[in-house]
Each structure stands twice: as C-alpha cells, then as structure tokens.
Amino acid sequence: MALWMEAGSEPLTENEKADLEAISALKESAAIEFKEQGNECVKKGKKHYSEAVENYTKAIDQRALSDSETSILFSNRAHVNLLLGNYRRALTDAEEALKLGPDNVKAVYRAAKASMSLDLLSEAISYCEKGIKSDPSNEDMKKLLKQVTLKKKEKEEHEAEVSRAVVEAKACLSVFENRGVKIGKAMYRELTGLKKPVLDQSNILHWPILLLYAEAMTSDFVEDFCETDIFLFLLSAVNMFSDDSPPLPWDTNHEYTREAIELYYEANSGTPLPRSRVLQYLLEGTKGSQAETTGDEDTSLTKTPYNVKGKGPSGMVKVNERRTLHDVLKESNFVIPEIPVFYIVSKRSKFYKDFAAGKWSPPC
C-alpha cells in the first residue's frame, strides 16, 4: 500500500496512486476541519485562544493545502498570537504567510502590528507602506501607519533627549575631573531635594548651595552660586544679614549679624564616589537616568590625593570669604555631599566656643 512507500519514491501502480490521492484528501479534509475549529475558538474569546493556535498549527502540519490557503493559516495564527501578546511568534507567522502569499494583505497588517509591538518601527512602517500599496483603500492600514510614524517620531525625540542628557552629564563630569572636585554621598537631600550643578556655555559651573546654621540646624538655600564668585557675594545673597532684615527667629540675642558670622565646611566628611556613581547622580531625574553608559571606569574623579574619612583630620575648616567657590571646592579635604554645604556660626554666640573647639559635629 502507498502508506508504506519510502519517502521520495513514485507510485508504481494505479492502486498506489489511488491510495495517495485518498490520503491527500483525508489530510486536506483534516486541515480544513482544524482551520474551522481554530476559527471557532477565536470567536469564543480569550479563554480559547491557545486552543485556536493549536488547531491552526495542526492544520499547517497536514501540509495538504495550497500555498495561498496555508498563507491564510499562518496569518490566522499570527492574529491569535497578537491577541495573546506573543509578538515575536506573531511576526514569524506573518512573515511565513507572506512567503507563501505575498499579496496577503491581512498578513502584512499583522506583520506591521507585531513589528510595532516589538519596537521595530522602521520595519512596521515598511509593512504598512507595502500594505497600502497593495490596497490603497485600506483604512486600518493607514491608521496604523499614522500610529507607527508618531511612535517612531516620539522615540527619536526621546533618544535625542537621552543623548543630550548623557552628553551634558559627561561634560559636567569631565569638568569635575579637571577642577579636582570630589563628589560624595548626599547628606541633606531631605532639605533640598535633588539638586545638581549646571555647566554654562562658558564652561563655568553654577552650584546650588546649602547654608546650615549649626547652632539651630536651620537652613538657607542658594539656587545658583557661580564657581568664580567669592564668598562675600554668597553671604550678600542671603538677605538675612542685610541691615534692614529682621533677625533670625531663633536668634533672640541678635548675635547673627553680618560682621559676626563665619562660614565653615566639614573636612573629610566622606569618601569620594567613583566616576560611574557621580555620572549616575548627574543623570538622576533626567531622560538619561536609565541610559546605558559605557567607557566610565569605576575610578575616582581625581588623581589628587585626598584624605578619606577616618584617615585624615576631620572637623570644621573656616572659609576665607575673599576666596572663590572654586578655590574652596578643590581643597583636597573637601568632599562635596552632592552639593556644597557650608555652616554658619556667630562669633558672638555661646555656641561658638564649642563649635571652634571641635566639640560639635553635624547630626548623622
């Protein structure tokens, strides 16, 4: 019988030919039945989608239908895989459908939808254009083309913003490195929120500054202090110390006057972060926060020797108000806790004696 013929051999008798024709008819009938069962499963809804895929697969495996009919089977299975969220399988099925039936517009549409879901936007646009060329009146295809085109535009704009954020952050990182500036972990973000320096077109850094009144642990915040400005300007920017300003609410003895206050920073307050961590901080809150950055080794920002916490003298260092911000920030014992923090004390206050003697330290 033809059932036992070797693969590739030709039937020799009329009976063998008849057997083969009967087997082919059975397989064709089975394929059509599986296809219809698959269609019914789709109509029944989501709970039956997996069963629909199985039926379409069984129909395809019969290898009994014409190329155009098999193209429809692959296209149908692509449709169900789209409904199931199996976008890669849907695209593969749609591509198989198009190999067998290049004019299968539904397969083109499903290939476009799967490509869009896989973020293969150029491919999706290409499929849409192919479908519209074959069927100029296909409104669904035109609508999908608009959606994909818009998504591609938004993606390109997002990528441009990410690229710009990374470039700006790396430029700032490079300036830190060249300036000998060391960045450490944040200390008072609960007071300031996420704040970062800004690099202007003249390659000058503008820093947000936190001023802490050590005696009362209250604060003032300066949004923008240029690194080339001297500290006299910084203190002038704090209106608390102008002649016509009222005293600080807690300064009942009026000890915090312009001529009485001094400015300090904490020496060796932490360990400098590696380049990758500093870059992560600079990208935080930007479109580039999730960007993959390469080529940034986990090394210190500067090769200038510095004292790490516990290995050098800690304590408060008085700031010469005639120095620039940059001159102070590049000091080897100054590790900036994301943004510069300076402490204000009054020479007239009883607190000053303990502060100057090193008996006070910032709360952890």
UniProtKB/TrEMBL annotation:
TPR repeats: 71-104
InterPro entries in UniProt: Csn1/TTC4_wheel, TPR-like_helical_dom_sf, TPR_rpt
Statement: the UniProt record of this protein carries the keyword Transport: no
Cross-referenced Pfam families: TPR_19, Wheel
SUPFAM superfamilies tied to this protein: TPR-like
Keywords noted in UniProt: Repeat, TPR repeat
Every Cns1/TTC4 wheel domain range: 200-270
Family statement drawn from the similarity comment of this UniProt entry: Belongs to the TTC4 family.
Protein name per Swiss-Prot or TrEMBL: Cns1/TTC4 wheel domain-containing protein
Species in which this protein is naturally found: Eruca vesicaria subsp. sativa (Garden rocket)
